[in-house]
Amino acid sequence: MGQLQGVHYPGATSEGYETKTGRRYMVRYRKPDRTQTMKRGFKTKRDANLFLSSVEVDKATGAFIDPAMSNKTIGELGPSWLERKQGLKPSAYRPLEIAWRVHVEPVWGKLPITNIIFTDVQAWVTGLSVGDAKAKPKIKPKSATTVIRAYGVLAAILDDAVKDRRLPVNPVRGVDLPRKTKKPHVFLSHEQIRDLADCSKYPALIRVLAYCGLRWGEVTGLRVQDVDMIRRRLNINQNAVDVGGKIKVGTPKSHEQRSVPFPEFLAPAIGELCKNRHREDLVFPNDDGSYLRHIDMRERKSWFGSAVITSGVPRVTPHDLRHTAASFAVSAGANVKAVQRMLGHSSASMTLDVYAELFDDDLDGVAIALNDVVSRLDVLKTCSKQA
């Protein structure tokens, strides 16, 4: 054992040792907390010196990473990251848990975080996106949402590793991800809503969805005490979401309560639903008084699917009626701020992003107004010359 030649760092020493494949070198050095540690396996003393120099530079610049902190696997760090996400709404937490359990942990769980490299993660993302037709059984391509979520879970775990000083940088940031394709909105007409409601088991529910723009969980969580018949308002105080087959009741999306007006023609039907009921009773209960569950349009035997088929309206889901409500509001003259408040969006810009096509007439109006201004100026200019 001896002092490293060419460098003089307090507490730093090296020694050679013999292995079956030849002589190797081991370095002992002090960490920032003054405790001593070691690293083995250097083929030459020069390699040992270079490593020690890099350690000292990292210590001086605050970039030092303790090797003992870097030997964790994704499988060891993932559960604690997921546990910290339990404060999310159940409907937001469950997709993360599924992404971890189905896509991330099986592939990356046993791998030390220092062994994860950019190109391997890019190949994994690409594989999820395109699937594998030659595999037995065949692996189908995953949706862009699923791929982006799975990648996000892995990247977030490594982000935490960087913050905990287990890694100097996140090696997977910058991976090329699939693009989400925006599904075209389906807007029904007033006549189509009438036909759909007439063929439905719950006609008042159809009309409330189409004219008030409530989310499914908001309308199924609505209680008698939330209905203000005098002001014709529906007070949205809670959200009933089906998570893994269980109804979870919490605050509305973004935790924002709001008051949504309903048209006067809906008052008789809503009043009848609230008649002779307790304040805590649901306005739109199932046959047994429990929460109505989200209906999948593909289930032709469901009450909603059956109503769509019988009425002959375009293929829609209950959530599509929220889009219809937005279109009705805009066509009736509502501005973007009013539509935002009705739908419970976090900002008017979000409403514009989601329903930009509904405000095309506003753009046409700008062009018409500009043309009118210029035309008036031309007329005034002509009149002044004639005078």
Runs in which pLDDT lies below 50 for 5 or more consecutive residues are: 1-6
Number of separate strands: 9
- For the largest sheet, list the strands in their spatial order: 1-2-3-4
Tally of alpha and pi helices: 14
Shape: elongated
State the CATH class of the largest domain: Mainly Alpha
Distance between the termini: 107 Å
CATH architecture of the largest domain: Orthogonal Bundle
Order of helices and strands: EEEEHHHHHHHHEEEEEHHHHHH
- CATH superfamily membership of the largest domain: Intergrase catalytic core
Provide a descriptive summary of the structure in words.
This protein has three domains: 2-64, no CATH class; 74-163, DNA polymerase, domain 1; 190-328, Orthogonal Bundle (hpI Integrase, Chain A). Helix 2 (74-84) runs antiparallel to helix 3 and helix 6 (190-198) crosses helix 10 (303-311). The protein has a four-stranded antiparallel beta sheet, with helices on one face. By secondary structure, the protein is an alpha+beta fold. The chain has helices spanning 45-61, 74-84, 90-108, 118-130, 144-163, 190-198, 203-212, 216-220, 267-274, 303-311, 320-331, 336-343, 348-354, 360-386; strands at 2-3, 13-19, 22-30, 36-42, 227-228, 233-236, 239-243, 246-250, 258-261.
